[in-house]
Structures are given as structure tokens and as C-alpha cells.
Amino acid sequence: MASSGEIASEVKSILAAARDRGGADRRLSVDARSLPAAFADAEAAGRVPVIAEVKPTSPTTDGERTDDPVALAERMVEGGAAALSVLTEPEHFGGSPETLEHVRAAVDVPVLRKDFLLYEEQLDVVESDVVLLIARFLQEEGTDDLADLIEAAHDRGFQVLVETHTETEVTAALAAGAEIIGVNNRDLAKLAVDLSTFESVAPSVPEDVTLIAESGIATVEDVRRMRTAGADACLIGSAIMDGDVRENTERLTQS
């Protein structure tokens, strides 16, 4: 595992902000919409399961999308998105818990909370169907153990997407009890994207684990490539947000 010194400066800044963000005094109890069931429904309807991401901005993209995020989310679902990912990180991605709350109330598909969670109390900020835990971040920070956070999330009713980048991280995620694993094609050390990352790491994920390809998926050909390599679904942000989100979602889910 790389040391924190090898992480890109943009990622260090994200981690620093995550460290300083508190949680909530309450303890949530969530009635989650099933992500695997949503993927199965998309497959049954002849669509590629896609998690479309409502992402106003990010350190790796230019500009900012200022449209109403609820309207964007609704158009993504109209375009065939099986689920949505909503950023709640404010400093670097322009997200907020309130945005997720409004989006989830407006749609009937599972909603993933895309944030950088390091402590159990950060789970209690807002209700979502799925929360993201990044294996590398938790190992780098040495904060709450991945297995403990997965258990804490499940106790609240959340499903958990554990993001990995290497076979070693997949092994750790499985040992911690992960049932949904994402393989991020973006290297956090250099922020470079390589779709062959998913192809090399995917074989280490058992068939009974839901497997999601993340980052760098921009074209129909990319989607087909990830699916051929074993992806049950693709998480797509910039390629959907850049332009007409309904048309982009339709194009990428018909792959």
C-alpha cells in the first residue's frame, strides 16, 4: 500500500477536508432501495446497469454545472439510469447532504452517497441507499477500521460500496465483509485513468459480489469493455454530466 506521501495533492486536500467534517448527533435508520435489484431490473429491461453521477464539479474536471441537481437526476432516471450517485462533499465537488436528500425524495431508484467518510458518525449525516467507503483512504488515515465501518453502515440499513484500486485492496475489502465492490480506474497517486485497471483487478472479485467499474468510462465502447471484463454496472459521471444528461444516459445504457 502506498504511503500518504504518494497521494496526489488534490487528494490530500480532499482527505484533509474530510478529516475536519463532523458527523451528526443522531443515529440514522434507513430503509434502503436495493442496488443489486435495480441492476437486475435494468438488465431485464435490456439496459446496461449504470449509476449516473450528479457531480457539479470536481478537481479533475473543468468548469461547473449549475443546473438544478434534482432536475438533472430526474432526467438521468428518464434516460435509463439504474441508480444515481450524488456528491455530498462540499469543498471540492460542490455537493451537499441537502442535495442528496432532495434528489432521493424525487426519484425511485437507489441513491449512492458519494463522499469521503472516515468516521462512523459521518454515516449519520444524511439518509441514502448506499454509502461509499474508500479502502485506500481508510488505510491511509488509520481511522475507523473498514470492517467496523461496514458493520456500522449495515446496522443503520445502508448498503456499502467499497471502492478499491488493486487486488490487495479487493482482498482487504472481502475480508472486511464487502458485498458490493467498485474498482476505480483512477490512480489516486497520479490521478491518471487507465481502464485496464478494472480488467486486471476484476478477476480477483468473486462472482457472488456485485462489481462496479468506476472512472474514465466515457464512450459506448468503454462501457462494453468494462462489461466484457465482468462489470455488473458502471458508475459514470463526467460523460453524462457533460451535455444533455438524458441523452447521454440513454446512449450509455443502450450499450
Task: Give a short summary of the structure.
40% of the residues lie in helices and 15% in strands.
Helix-strand makeup class = alpha/beta
Overall mean pLDDT stands at 91
- Write out the strand line-up for the largest beta sheet, numbering strands in chain order: 1-2-3-4-5-6-7-8
Distance between the termini: 35 Å
Contiguous runs where pLDDT drops below 50 for at least 5 residues: 1-5
What's the helix-strand series? Answer: HHEHEHHEEHHEHEHEHEHH
Looking at CATH, the homologous superfamily is Aldolase class I
Proper CATH architecture: Alpha-Beta Barrel
Q: Give the overall shape, derived from the CA principal axes.
A: globular
Number of helices: 12
Largest sheet: 8 strands, parallel, barrel
Using the coordinates shown, work out and report the CATH topology. Answer: TIM Barrel
The top level CATH class name:
Alpha Beta
Structural descriptors:
globular, TIM Barrel, 255 residues, alpha/beta, disordered N terminus, eight-stranded parallel barrel
Q: How would you describe what is shown here?
A:
The chain has helices spanning 9-20, 35-44, 69-78, 90-93, 97-106, 135-141, 146-156, 167-175, 196-201, 220-228, 238-241, 245-253; strands at residues 50-54, 83-87, 111-114, 130-134, 159-164, 180-184, 210-214, 233-236. It is globular. It has one domain: Aldolase class I (TIM Barrel), CATH 3.20.20.70. Helix 3 crosses helix 5 (97-106). It is an alpha/beta fold and 255 residues long. It has an 8-stranded parallel barrel with strand order 1-2-3-4-5-6-7-8, surrounded by 8 helices. Strand 7 (210-214), helix 10 and strand 8 form a beta-alpha-beta unit. Mean pLDDT is 91; it is low at 1-5.
